[in-house]
Amino acid sequence: FSHAGWYFPPLPDTGRAVPGGFPQAATGVPAAVVARGAHDCVFEGCSFSHMGTYALELGGGCRENEIRRCDISDLGAGGIRIGETVIREKEEERTWGNTVVDCRIHDGGLIFHSAIGVWIGQSGMNRIIHNQIHDFYYSGISIGWTWGYGPALAQGNLVAMNHVHHIGVLTDGDGPILSDMGGIYTLGNQEGTVIRDNIFHDIAAFRYGGWGIYFDEGTTHILAERNLVYNTTHGGFHQHYGKEIG
Asked: Rounded to two decimals, what is the model's pTM?
């Protein structure tokens, strides 16, 4: 049902499908709580748990909202999803300027293994600050949804002072079961995006691609500085292809 711009979708009918059957980031899986066109809203001190989907989505047209001091856990998919996979033509339909701060997002991807702790699609000027993200089978944070040098909106995002750990391999030793992931993963033109003062560790991939900081296809105009990365299976940093990286 929906109310005042919020949409609460039903759980997906997965039938007897093999768990984790969605592709990268499990973007086809809905969230338990979905906002559309929400401005200046605050989620503070909330608990989202025991869900078969993503927990919370700030979708099309959501601006200047805050998610702070929330605990998000025991998730069939991922934690928080910001923005969309498409580039909206109308400015009022675009998502930007949202904040996730002082949250703990953990123990996810239990059904849809490719889900993300915090996923940002075609959305800019968001702030992911001082969160703890851990125990996911795929990437902890993912920014961007344009492969290569084409049009992109994931610009001017700030990722700072986060602690991202046990990605791919869980705290209890389970995993890895997937490849090609990172503590943080990026795509496309990221002009103005900064990744600063974060800690990424205990990241493992099944066959390849267990990196701390992973700049994938076309990652451009991005700055990463003063981050600490350790205990990864394939390296602290990897760039597939891109240019003008700081």
From this structure: 0.92
